[in-house]
Amino acid sequence: MIYQDVELFNAEEVEEFDGGVMLQRFTKEACRDTQYRASWMVSAAMGCEIRFVAESDVFWITLGAVTKDINVYVMRGDYFYDKYTIKAGTKTVLEFENYDFLSEYKKIDEARFSHNVWRFYFEYEGPIVYYGIRSLHGNVRPPHTSEKPKKTILAYGSSITHGCWAMDSRNSYIQQAAQRLNMDVMNKGMAGACRLENSICDFLIDLKGWDIAFLELGVNVLDHYSVEKFEQCAEYLVKNLCDRNTDKPVFLTGSYYNHISLSENREKSDLFEAVLMNIGDKYNLTNLHYVSGEKIMDSTEYLSRDVVHPSDWGHIRMGENLARIIEKNI
User: Is 283 helix (H, G, I), strand (E, B) or coil?
Assistant: First the structure.
């Protein structure tokens, strides 16, 4: 969305808060059925960005963290610039010199973003508040279409897809895949809370602005939903998303290697997986591509000590695998 001459990427709404606006990844209507952890995960800043091009040689941006410290990764296009931490309960002003750090070089590579685009990427599971930009000598503007990736991946899934446990969630496997494909990521992951609520599903089904969808379903409700309920919820989302977007490929996967799938007590997990495997044939969804999680996470060595989340090495390898799978099917 465009707000006061900047792009609030992956934010669907803003909510007034303490003189600024809190970035919301979902609309209020989408949150109608959310409960427990999902009720605050919808406001998690991780995956949101503030993007703009500045004319002034100096500008100040003011940000606030509400409930938790928030890391801010500042990028110039795809070039890393710096990292900052906004402390919980504080309003922080950051100052930047807006010089072209690549102007003296004859050849630069820009696959996705123009390096003139400032990108403020937010990480961790708390909300972020944007108070505005003071530009000393000129205006700021949203990036032009030509300055951004031409295609966007819509992602919905658990904490693994949201980016948790990567030391830097910008390098999570979905982001790794997107960078290899020269695409953007509209990340609607719900760490610990991918529960396929009706209102969330309806929101995703109606959502615009994406070219490829990637759904990672099941692991967060394995202990909470019966097989029948999971089947009902998963089929509702997948069938309607595919039917509403027949010209767009939808990729669907279930669980990756984890402490359940590696144990002898994986019967329910296998039944969940069978639900996902059968949706395409059951409803003749020609744009649906089911992918076994073991094709993406193809080795247990990618896991961290909790035997659930990938390590950084795991995210990298999973991103490579997912990019190859998507590229073969688009």
Answer: helix
Among all chains, which residue has been given the structure tokens 């190859």? 324
Taking alpha carbons only, the member of 194, 203, 281 closest to residue 235 is 281
Q: Per DSSP, which regions of the chain are E strands? A: 2-3, 6-9, 13-17, 20-24, 49-54, 58-65, 70-76, 79-86, 90-97, 118-123, 128-135, 140-141, 151-156, 183-187, 212-216, 250-253, 288-290
Place of tokens 């193809």: 298
Report d(CA 303, CA 300) in Å as an integer: 6
d(CA 118, CA 133): 12
Q: Can you list the domains of the chain with their CATH numbers? A: 2-147 (2.60.120.260), 151-328 (3.40.50.1110)
Q: Does the pLDDT value for residue 178 go beyond 80?
A: yes
Distances (CA, A) of 240 to 58, 69, 207, 236, 285: 48, 37, 12, 6, 10
H/E stretch holding 205:
helix 198-206
Strand order in the sheet with 151-156: 183-187, 151-156, 212-216, 250-253, 288-290
Torsions phi, psi for 155 (to 5 deg): -120, 135
Phi and psi of 108, rounded to 5°?
A: -130, 155
Per residue in 257-269, pLDDT (tens digit) is 999 889 878 899 9
Answer whether 260's CB lies under 8 Å from 222's CB: yes
Q: Which pTM value belongs to this model? A: 0.95
Give the pLDDT band of residue 250 (cuts 50, 70, 90).
Answer: very high
CB 8 within 8 A of CB 20: no
Max intra-chain CA distance, the chain: 65
The β-bridge relationship of strands 250-253 and 6-9 is unpaired
